[in-house]
Amino acid sequence: MKKILIANRGEIAIRVMQTAQKMGIKTVAVYSEADRNAPHVKFADEAVCIGKAPSNQSYLLGSKIIEVAKKLHVDGIHPGYGFLSENADFAEEVEKNDLIFIGPKSRAIRIMGSKLAAKDAVKNYNIPMVPGIDEAITDVKKAKVIAKEIGFPILIKASAGGGGKGMRVVEDEKELGSQMERAISEATSAFGDGSVFIEKYVTSPRHIEIQVMADSHGNILYFFERECSIQRRHQKVVEEAPSSILTPELREEMGVAATKVAKACDYLGAGTVEFLMDADHKFYFLEMNTRLQVEHPVTELITGVDLVELQIKIARGEAMSIKQEDLHINGHALELRVYAEDPLNDFLPSVGTLETYKLPTGKGVRVDNGFEEGMEVPIYYDPMLSKLISYGKDRDEAIQIMLKAIENYYIEGVQTTLPFGKFVFEHEAFRSGNFDTHFVKNYYSPEVLNKKAEEEAKIAAELAVKQYLQDQKILRLPTK
Ligand code: MV4
To answer: Where are the alpha helices (DSSP H) in 215-359?
Structure first.
């Protein structure tokens, strides 16, 4: 592979290009009219404008991107995350045009894109699953029988669902009929597929996912877990590796289960197997994400492996040279997603120009960034500015480094999730490791953030007064 095209923008496009560069591979960026001066365009060896700002007229135009790739004699396409990364038709089209899709085969993408197909694929592999059914259901009477068997509360899920869309918690039998109707109509309008199924509702789960890598020679490795329970409305905000609640035994059990899921769909490349973990530390397979994930850096830091490099080698047909026994967890890593969103105003996108934009640096600090000072934050795309990542010898050190890095990250012109991150990393529940997916809902409100800011301002003011009085004393000395 001599040249690859990155079908993405922002930090992930740059992240992928950095590794390509390191491997001596030339890079091609694609961009929309809104991204003409974006850092990912400047970073690439070549760059081609593919359309107007809205993503359905640019970054989602699969055929256009393939056309560019062929014209520039590209060997492979890296899709990043989001956009076309989990589009099975695109992956197939790429291969049909004699280009390499740096990712799994379209068949695996298709299977894992449907929760029911995924359940079906893994059913002979002895993977722990939440009690429930593995086929679409429309008959309320049947649903009632099943729900009683499973026991309330139950959860209705859309097979084609993602990001919590089409999910309905049902507390008791009399709500079941109406909730099922709603779930089916929501799924139909959102995904064009009204298939829903029923699972036992795990009330206070943690979200723990396993990174896997599979090559074309039959090797499948797991790169341990990421804890992603700190999320807000299905949007992750803080991730870490390792999880503070896994024992070595549990870690191995989940790792092996994850590799079996990969095997079940004949997986290739980087993938993530999501599990729920209940209060008794029992884990259940949820779904598999068939892409490189936003939070992959925390895994890179604790394993010392460049996952993008491995993706590219696998796509070239190489066998992984590492063995499972070679992989170990070293230290602890945290990630904060820095969004241009206002934590004091319901996390609404905060648009504007980055008047000041200075990244923190130092030992144990990594920033995967897609922006620079003076740039506007486009309204057309996900408002994530960067990922602030810290690495320490243990969790406490990683938290300290993260807090310092937040303090040394200077952004003016837009509101960001930096203060929210500070709130999380200072919170007792986070520090103790005793939290679940309800963390944000349970502990966060704009008031607590305001109150904290007020207290800190007060302390700062007191310190300033003290210093002033000190200075006065010193100044007076000579006149004595
Ligand atoms: C669940 C669950 C509880 N019980 N399934 C949310 C999105 C989709 N990936 C699956 N999700 C959940 N499935 C059962 N049987 C709770 C969630 C859930 C969740 C999962 C992971 C991270 C954050 C979450 C927030 C709310 C609900």
So the answer is: 248-264, 296-303, 307-315
CA of 110 to the centre of ligand 1 (A): 21
**Mean pLDDT confidence for 47-75:** 98
**Catalytic residue at 431?**
no
Q: If you average pLDDT over residues 420-432, what whole number do you get?
A: 97
Q: Which residue's entry shows tokens 């079941």? A: 176
Residue 376 DSSP one-character state: B
CB of 239 within 6 A of ligand 1: the answer is: no
pLDDT of residue 454: 85
Assess whether the C-beta atom of 164 lies below 6 angstroms from ligand 1. yes
Give buried/exposed letters for 2-18 (b at 16+ CB in 10 A, else e).
ebbbbbbbbbbbbbbbe
Q: What is the CATH number of the domain that holds 263?
A: 3.30.470.20
- Is the model's pLDDT at 85 over the cut of 50? yes
304 pocket-lining for ligand 1 (C-beta < 6 Å): no
CATH code (residue 177): 3.30.1490.20
The residue whose C-alpha atom lies closest to atom 8 belonging to ligand 1 is 164
Ligand 1 lined by 166 (C-beta under 6 Å): no
In sequence order, what are the residues at sequence separation of 6 or more whose Cβ sits closer than 8 angstroms to the Cβ of residue 14?
A: 39, 40, 43, 368, 369, 370
The pTM is what?
0.94
pLDDT band for position 478 (cuts 50, 70, 90): low
Residue 286 in contact with ligand 1 by CB distance below 6 A: yes
pLDDT of residue 480: 45
In the reported structure, the alpha carbon of residue 275 is separated from the centroid of ligand 1 by a whole-number distance in angstroms of 9
Binned at pLDDT 50, 70 and 90, residue 164 comes out as confident
Whether residues 80 and 220 share a domain: the answer is: no
β pairing state of 365-369 and 384-392: antiparallel
Q: Number of structural domains, the chain?
A: 4
Q: Average the pLDDT over each of 9-13, 378-382, 427-431, 450-454 and give the range with the smallest value.
A: 450-454
Lowest mean pLDDT among 246-260, 426-440, 462-476: 462-476
More confidently predicted of 138 and 19: 19
Three-class HEC string of 126-188: CCCECCECCCCCCCHHHHHHHHHHHCCCEEEEECCCCCCCCCEEECCHHHHHHHHHHHHHHHH
Domain range for 158? 131-200
**Residue whose pair of structure tokens reads 């590209």 in the numeric block:** 74
Ligand 1 atom index nearest CA of 287: 9
Residues 190 and 253 in one domain: no
One domain for residues 426 and 471: no
pLDDT in tens, 94-127: 999 999 999 999 999 999 999 999 999 999 999 9
User: What is the C-alpha to C-alpha distance for residues 295 and 237, in angstroms, rounded to an integer?
Assistant: 10
